[in-house]
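Researcher: Let's do a round of design. I'm pasting the structure tokens now; please hold your answer until I've finished.
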């Protein structure tokens, strides 16, 4: 039998096999049998090398025609089979368009929840909400807040610097500075936001955390106003009467400066492990705005004075939900987040 006849026989065989293929797997078998590495057509193509030139040409042409035809048929039948499979899938999977769908809904991060709550309480007391960038200038984070260049208090706030001499804000007090420049007194603002410090982490310190800054500038502002606003806020937030006490605290931008403690809500001040048996919990630093700070931002201190506070928002969230480790917040751990 000549090679040409052999090819014709293969052609007839291949056509028959392609037509009887029922699945994509059947088609792959056919492809392998003729066109695979050890396929019958492949073998013929390989044997061409040793043929005399004339025969090589005619047999080669025939073999290539066969290959093209086979590829074409395989493709056509493949499409038909795929189409059939899709149709049968569609007819066996009916869709009930009226069936209610169970969509997995997202939820707010506990910090966002508490942040919105804090904003609501303060806006009800006439405060506006302000925002500021996380990358700040040295001036807005320190200079304008009465930290001189070599002031040791800078060391209290280990800072992440950018290569161009800016920094990741170490506190939301930088937003006070922006508020004083933008708003005309009297004004009152609350400014929640993310802060960063270059420090080692433990259960109560993270390099990324949230604060909510507050500032009120008006005529004749006193410590009594500060205490009243803090007590009103805390009682609304914790939904019970909260007692506070002030201890002296140092921050270059307030004078006098305080650490405000609240009576322990777990034991009502009697003493328990949560408050280390003191009956008090340290909650937020605050004070009357230092006149240097007001002056630097162009506020007339003969007319205006103010108070400011820096609430640890992360801390507040931990107290609200009894969270024992601040590092859960930024962990992205779904087992933690799904609880809220
Ligand atoms: N910004 C200060 C800090 O993060 C806290 C503070 C704010 C103190 C406002 C006083 C007044 O440490």
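Researcher: That's everything. Go ahead.
Model: Designed sequence:
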């Amino acid at each position: 039998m000549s090679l040409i006849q052999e090819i014709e026989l293969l052609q007839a065989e291949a056509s028959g096999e392609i037509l009887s293929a029922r699945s994509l797997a059947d088609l792959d078998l056919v492809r392998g049998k003729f066109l695979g590495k050890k396929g019958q057509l492949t073998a013929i193509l390989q044997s061409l090398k040793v043929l005399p030139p004339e025969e090589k040409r005619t047999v080669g042409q025939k073999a290539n025609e066969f290959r093209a035809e086979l590829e074409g048929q395989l493709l056509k039948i493949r499409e038909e089979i795929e189409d059939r499979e899709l149709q049968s899938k569609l007819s066996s999977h009916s869709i009930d368009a009226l069936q209610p769908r169970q969509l997995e809904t997202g939820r707010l991060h506990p910090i966002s929840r508490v942040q919105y709550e804090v904003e609501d309480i303060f806006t009800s007391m006439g405060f506006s909400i302000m925002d500021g960038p996380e990358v700040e200038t040295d001036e807005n984070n320190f200079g304008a807040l009465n930290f001189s260049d070599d002031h040791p208090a800078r060391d209290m706030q280990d800072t992440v610097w950018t290569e161009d001499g800016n920094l990741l804000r170490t506190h939301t007090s930088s937003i006070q500075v922006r508020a004083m420049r933008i708003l005309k007194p009297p004004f009152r603002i609350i400014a929640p936001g993310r802060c960063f410090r270059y420090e080692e982490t433990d259960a109560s310190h993270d390099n990324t955390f949230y604060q909510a800054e507050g500032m009120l500038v008006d005529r004749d502002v006193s410590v009594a106003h500060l205490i009243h606003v803090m007590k009103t806020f805390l009682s609304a937030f914790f939904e019970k009467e909260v007692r506070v006490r002030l201890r002296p605290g140092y921050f270059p931008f307030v004078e006098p400066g305080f650490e405000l403690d609240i009576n322990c809500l777990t034991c009502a001040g009697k003493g328990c492990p949560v408050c280390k048996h003191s009956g008090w919990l340290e909650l937020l630093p605050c004070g009357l705005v230092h006149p240097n700070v007001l002056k630097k931002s162009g506020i007339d201190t003969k007319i205006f004075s103010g108070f400011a506070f820096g609430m640890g928002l992360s801390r507040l969230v931990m107290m609200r939900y009894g969270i024992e480790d601040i590092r859960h917040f930024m962990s992205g751990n779904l087992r933690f987040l799904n609880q809220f």
